[in-house]
Records
---
Amino acid sequence: MRRRLGWIAIAWLVAICALALAVYGSAPVHAGLDERTTAVASQLRCLVCQGESVADSPSGFAAGIRALIRRDLRAGETPAQIESFLVSRYGNRILMAPQSGGIGQIAWLAPPLLVLGGLGFVLTLIFDWRNRGRTPVLVADSYLERVRAELAEE
Amino acid sequence: MKRLIGVVFLVIAAGVVALLASGFGRNPATVRDPLVGHPAPDFTLAAYDGTTVSLRALQGRPVVVNFWASWCADCKVEHRALLQAWRADRSHVVFLGIPYQDSRSGAAAFLRRYGGGWTQLRDPSQDTAINFGVWGVPETYFIDRHGVIRAKVTGPVTAATLQTDLREIAG
């Protein structure tokens, strides 16, 4: 049972790491211009849409941003430079995910910390509950003597 | 140990809940604009009347830049206030309009119907709009004599907001 719980904990950690990698993952360096444009656009929020990225939205706003990304990538700018420019114009709200530096780290660290903390709390409760039945019960000698005497009388 | 983990968990959870709860008291539409207080991005655009306008060349005069569109309902709402401000202040304030995601004929029909004699600039690539951080019209920028953006109104301007912001850049 304890080993199984250990595996569950490891599986949780692996899932969290995979999620972080998926979010942080960047486009392959040798991808085509279309793929690189889409990769950058997918990290940006369409500000006139509900929960859509610039890559997914058919809006004129998103089309304008995609055109700018494409042109800047062709001119040799890096995705980080393009994102930085757009953040300087629209603020952090243009980003689909919070920035990984500064105060934005809280948003990244809090969820896994909460999950790990909750997991640890639940595991501790389970271990405590399982061990409760095995813990020897401490009884005073005088009480034991009295019980034995009463049993002997019967 | 169990108690310690529980306390740490509760402290973190309380922090996150407090952070989220603080957001309920704020209007998500009132986001501080990163360009206010900074020099306005320069542009050189062709006007519908055939001239070319450079923002840098206008330094020394207060400038109002209004991004709008003929299909935008709020642009109709604000137009009367803009027209009145332009008539009152055009001698010492430069008014510029930049139609956003609009056709030339649509913009021209709007101006014929509702009036407005200030210069209208073409921004077909939306580069200038993006440079100013425009995402939905109407958006109006108030630029002082030194080329610094002193205020931005997202949504329709009113006579009152125009009066306040014009005083700030023209004062």
---
Amino acid sequence: MIHYEQNQFRLSERATSDATPLDVWRSSGAPLGAIVLVANTANNEDLALAASRASVIVLEFPTFVDGRAYSQARLLRQRYGFKGDLRASGNVLRDQALFMVRCGFSSLDVDGAAKDGYDRALSEFTFYYQSAADNAPPAWRLRADRARAA
Amino acid sequence: MYRYDELDDTIVRERAAQFRGQVARRLSGELTEEEFKPLRLMNGLYLQLHAYMLRVAIPYGVLNAAQLRRLGHIARTYDKGYGHITTRQNIQFNWPALVDVPDILDQLAEVGMHAIQTSGNCIRNVTTDQYAGATPDEIEDPRIWCEIIRQWSTFHPEFSFLPRKFKIAVTASANDRAAVRVHDIGLRLHRAADGQVGFEVLVGGGLGRTPYIAQTVREFLPKEHLLSYLEAVLRVYNLEGRRDNKYKARIKILVNSEGIDEFRRLVEEEWTSGEGHAADLPREEVERIRRQFDPPAFDRTADDDLAFNEAVAANTSFARWTRTNLAPHKQRGYAIVNVSLKPPGAAPGDITADQLDVVAHLAERYSFNEARATHEQNICLPHVRTRHLLDVWRTLDTHGMATPNIGLASDIIACPGLDYCDLANARSIPIAQRIADAFSDQALAEDVGELKIKISGCINACGHHHVGHIGILGVDKKGEEFYQITLGGSASDDAALGEIIGRSLSSDEAVSAVQQMVHFYRSARQPGERFLDTYRRLGADRFKQLLYGKE
């Protein structure tokens, strides 16, 4: 697995305990600090509950073309204020790593041996046009800063 | 037009470098074709019937001379000497080798061009009125908002793996030339009763196998909230759109299964909750972009049109061209020149390398360094001084681009069809050529007037047959090419889907059916009626009877 911290990936151990599916977790009283697996069909109430009580939220990419978890990640970070580890699991490819990080994912459940490729994928772009769930300033803000500095 | 700054330039160059790495991984065998496919499809590279096809983005259709020349160079060096203008204002090259594509992208990046998001399940190149900034009938220049959408949608991290492709078009004119009602989102700039200018947001239009005309999701959206509102629509679609069946995955299916009222509720709820419209641009960035679309330095002294009037009187070919291929300009003494890419016997929308160079020269010399690719697969020069029209016409005529047929029967939209495309059931281009031949008599074509004929080689409807006044759809019947005719469609303000008129016809029958219907129209029309108007007044039955008798 790889973890995203301070603008780069570092290798991390695979999670020791399995994630609990959200329904199971909720019916056992949604204990604090759990690792919760949220399906990509979950509604906003589910997301809000997980954001407020889980320590790790695992979102799924059943195939790389299924992009629902990108929206869920932004909702968790930006609307529901989730501060814990947000993990991408499933068909997580290096060519999508940058999009995932920008949407707020903080770990990717992938083979650590492939880390170099993911590192390169992160460094391919210097600027972004739009604001997302990461801290990267969008192009319009950089332009405004430059205009003021000039 | 918009000029790239260092940030825009860096993004495009880094994308070219990234794709070079992806192609290298494919060529070295690190990636299989299956693994490479989604990567190339993020960058406009399709595997077609005979070769790769590269679709290059022309953001909202706007081109300068350096870009036109570079496209010409690419056509000459890496292709068979021509490119093809598409209905979404892009240009396609049908014969590049995979190994050359990274070099092509580097060369495009040097002139601020790319193939970003010209394919894939993402937000595609935004399109608009080709007369933007020149036409007297617009309320403001829609390209400002197109550029804002271009930047926002480029590598949007949340919306690059949507259920299906997503197309946005913008118009600011009462006369919709951008077909906004057949887009996933259509944006119509208009003035509300209180004088404020904002967007009507239309959603869920589209052609393909399940065609729909878009419905209004919001009557009036203040301009400053455009991006946050688009994010709300896209987020609802990304989370709720169907992913189990690619033919049910477009937003039009979601809108129509939920109903427009429920869809509106979902969007409004998303838009008004939480993040405070964080995607909206600050005023200073909107102004920075707006300034780049300031009108060029028009010569406002009264033009002496005497020479033009004399030339019209003296030269019947020129006179004919001025009747069909010019559009009025907002600045007195100027005209919009339409460059026809529909000469007799050619594939609609094809343009050779030499022609690209000629258009570059004309744009530079006569049109403030600007040309536009049009939705109807032609090119236009937006700002030409009346006194230069004769020179421009002569040059276009010499190079086969002055066919006086804009908006007429031979100005046909057609997809590449079975000649190029591995999805097609039938050829489109030969049918287009034969219909165009049938209307090569200029007096006849002008007498018939506006007639939109649109031809698709399969039900994916790339040739927009559903919204042709006369639509023609290629179908496969036991291995033979047949054509189904639809009537009464329109992609403009009176948008409507055409109605299938009867059993499909052989290519010979289809061509003569078009002639028969037009002949009937000329005998039945009332003063001022277009073919479409006559059809709508008389109804489908009259035309069915005409073509099929009592069967």
